[in-house]
């Protein structure tokens, strides 16, 4: 499986970013009931496995077949960290499931990757049961650092507005970090900004986007290695206890957490 620097992976991703993802899943788990659960954008499956329980059927999907295969081999039945979860490769904008078949749907840090995020939101609503819940976790636009993989960033009211097109009830809260977490983010942002200043001519903004993505995914692992753990935050020990849910969302709040219920149903087009 290719290491891109974008997909969270232990030992390769700063601990504070792993903690950010852990905190989002923690908040989903706190609101989960029984039934069928879909995790869209499951990655290597570590977080998806946390959804498993005796009264749940869990399925994780990832757009990359190799990643879904790794998730299945590690966290699927019979794997070294095996659970009852199943993992398949699937496009988050065209989910291959029948309508209304999941009691809970999780989309963690996926919607910002879509050029047309409404396609993804529509699919979340379509596969969500009438009395089900969809959870959408995404960076808070003003707080996000430059990332070529993030093509559509949201502020809270924008995320709520989009989801209201497909769900009758939408609540958006924030996942905020404590002072220790904020200091880590600020330190890594400073390092990142120094590196970006080396691109004096801003060539990254002039080259085709696929070139920028290719450069980013190949350069970032090297940059992490050169900077060392003290600057990258890999091995810092930060965990999800440094994040908390809040109704107060400010520009520096790292993450938006949306809870959407009562999916809207639209007549099938002819």
Structure overview:
This protein has 270 residues and is α/β, with parallel strands linked by helices. The chain has a single domain (15-41, 92-263), classed as Rossmann fold (3-Layer(aba) Sandwich). The protein is built from seven helices and eight strands; from the N terminus they run αββαββαβαβαααββ. The chain has helices spanning 15-29, 65-75, 117-127, 156-164, 179-197, 209-227, 229-232, and strands at residues 35-40, 56-62, 86-89, 102-108, 128-139, 167-177, 243-246, 255-263. The termini are far apart. Mean pLDDT is 85; it is low at 1-5.
Structural class: alpha/beta
Radius of gyration: 18 Å
**Shape descriptor:** globular
**CATH fold-level assignment:** Rossmann fold
Overall CATH class = Alpha Beta
Helix content: 25-40%
Helix segment tally = 7
In N-to-C order, the SSE pattern is HEEHEEHEHEHHHEE
**CATH-wise, what's the superfamily?**
Vaccinia Virus protein VP39
Average residue pLDDT = 85
